[in-house]
Amino acid sequence: METKLNVVILSHTPEFEQNIVRGARLCYSSADIEELRDQITPESAERFLNMILEIGHGSILEHSSITFGIEGVSRSLTHQLVRHRVGCSYSQKSQRYVSEGQFEYVIPKPIAKYDRLKADYIKMMEKLQEDYNHITLSLLVEQIKEQAAIGKVTEEVSSAIANGIEGEALVEILKAGDKKLYSKLEKIAIENARYVLPNACETKIQVTMNVRALFNFFKERLCDRAQEEIRDMAYEMWLACMEIAPTIFKYAVPTCVHGKCKEGKMTCGKMLYYKEKHGKIIKKYEK
What we know:
Elements: E1 6-12, H1 16-27, H2 33-39, H3 42-54, E2 65-74, H4 75-81, E3 88-92, H5 109-112, H6 115-149, H7 155-162, H8 167-177, H9 179-193, E4 202-210, H10 211-221, H11 228-244, H12 246-249, H13 255-258, H14 271-284
Helix pairs in contact: 1-3, 6-8, 6-9, 7-8, 8-9
């Protein structure tokens, strides 16, 4: 089943911009903590942030963070995402503990735009679903028989095996009579069957990043050099961040938006496109 990207902000640091400004002003002031706090207004915070971010004072950005809930992305994407480690925390849906009995999957846009190729791709996903279900059930049944051979199952299960009952029927008998053993054997089955699941398999992940980590993430993953799926996710995250703190996140864009492309000979050549794309959003929040 095809899935769709969904990005939501679950929580963020209170007094988001002011918290960063307090850290920055502390570096340059002899005032005490309470005095610094009371001096900061939304207007003074905006002026100070523009000044400090233009000169690239990055450590102050670590004082505020955002937690995202993300779904409708592939395991391929999250393998890339978790490479961002400093200032980042992740919790992802486990394929060891959660069955993928009817997994959803991501279809990459370059594949989806060709009907014939998309149809072939979907067939492959359906076949992998069948393979996963087959291995899960078969391994579960083999384990039940193994437990029966050493006398670790109920009389109902032993009788069912003696009468030639197999497959899902046998599993249901075990589940009804010994939920603890069923849960133990099911976990072993699904954590091993998952080896046949594709990178396209949909996953859900909670991500917490401080603002400095988000700056690094956006500069890398909003760039055209990033793979399209993670670039689309990064853009949705950036839009959500702009709702919270536009004064800060207008700087959290690919280097070509406010200056020169950092990719050198590897440049995508689309600097004007990205300047316009992000510039329109930035301008929307200008007062």
